[in-house]
Design a protein that fits this description.
325 residues, alpha/beta, Peroxisomal Thiolase, Chain A, domain 1, five-stranded mixed β-sheet, four-stranded mixed β-sheet, 10 helices, 13 strands, 32% helix
Length: 325
């Protein structure tokens, strides 16, 4: 029995030109290259220019994805933009991308699930494509986290960077089996009891300010290990797939120790794990599509490969997705 699958046709990415190294950070705040590398695996991060907004990063990634897919922007009827750092409170940054691409039909909206944003956005687009009559979607993760960091707090400012990644997704009828191309399974979770462990201490309603990021690092790390493993377990079980069948593991790029530990737990060889945290740092909702695009462009991810995605972010939110490229 055939089913509709959301097939990834192409991907694109954008990283700001300005690179901030650990050594440069150490001249601003009490830290060191060794301290950052040892605890996080991060060597550097990209920082948006003063005149670059989140929608600018998203637009560049979207155009690259359209070019890679060989799809005209006029053939896109849905844009889902995952971000925690929109240009404005409203309108959604997605409509700025829509307008810049010359799209005057369909729908465009932002989605906020912090670092889990791309997984949430992909699952959302998948449901719209399969059930709501949309044909082609741009799913984007874009962030300018440098705008919401306390640059005097060495525990947080060293962790994040800016960037954007995007994929073009098309509804296609497939055979209905595990060999189908496209999104095969997704799983989304959240638990608001832990919202004070990773949050921004401002907002238009609560404080009438933007605020800066606050995090209890040890608590986030502890929950991440458990929640990510649970989401991966469930999404693999629901799809009827074993971890050894996965060709590529593309996790949210938060901390190298979390990535290595998760891969070991599932018996995923290190050469199957896509790592960009060393060069990008944590780009929140942008981290997975940035990693996907890098692995696709350098020839690692090929059509037919089985790719496992996972992420956890503030809220707490977390999730996983299994995709046949």
């Amino acid at each position: 029995m055939s089913v509709v699958r959301s097939v990834i046709l192409g991907c694109g990415s954008y990283l700001p030109e300005n690179v901030l190294t650990n050594e440069e950070l150490a001249r601003r705040v009490e830290t060191s290259d060794e301290w950052i590398r040892t605890r996080t695996g991060i060597h550097q991060r990209h920082i948006a220019a003063d005149d670059e907004n989140t929608s600018d990063l998203a637009l560049a990634a979207a155009r690259a994805a359209l070019d890679d897919a060989g799809v005209d922007a006029r053939d896109i009827d849905l844009i889902v933009l995952a971000t925690s750092t929109p240009d404005y409170t409203f309108p959604a940054s997605a409509v700025s991308v829509q307008a810049a691409l010359g799209i005057t039909h369909g729908a465009a909206f932002d989605l906020q699930a912090v670092c889990s944003g791309f997984v949430f956005a992909l699952a959302t687009a998948d449901n719209f494509l399969r059930c709501a009559g949309f044909k082609r979607a741009l799913v984007i993760g874009a962030e300018t986290f440098s705008r919401i960091l306390d640059w005097k707090d060495r525990a947080t400012c060293v962790l994040f960077g800016d960037g954007a990644g995007a994929v073009v997704v098309e509804a296609q009828r497939q055979g209905g089996g595990i060999s189908d191309r496209g999104v095969l399974q997704t799983l989304l979770r959240s638990d608001g009891r832990y919202q004070d462990k990773l949050y921004v201490d401002g907002g238009p309603s609560a404080t009438r300010t933007t605020g800066v990021l606050r995090m209890e690092g040890r608590e986030v790390f502890r929950h991440a290990v458990v929640n990510i493993a649970d989401a991966m377990d469930q999404v693999l079980a629901q799809a009827g797939v074993k971890a050894e069948q996965v060709d590529w593991f593309v996790p949210h790029q938060a901390n190298r120790r979390i990535l290595d530990g998760t891969a070991r737990k599932f018996g995923i060889s290190s050469d199957k794990v896509v790592i960009t945290v060393d060069r990008h740092a944590n780009t929140s909702a942008a981290s997975i599509p940035l990693a996907l695009c890098e692995a696709k462009s350098d020839g690692r991810i090929k059509q037919g490969d089985l790719v496992l995605l996972e992420a956890m972010g503030g809220g707490f939110t977390w999730g996983a997705a299994l995709v046949r490229w």
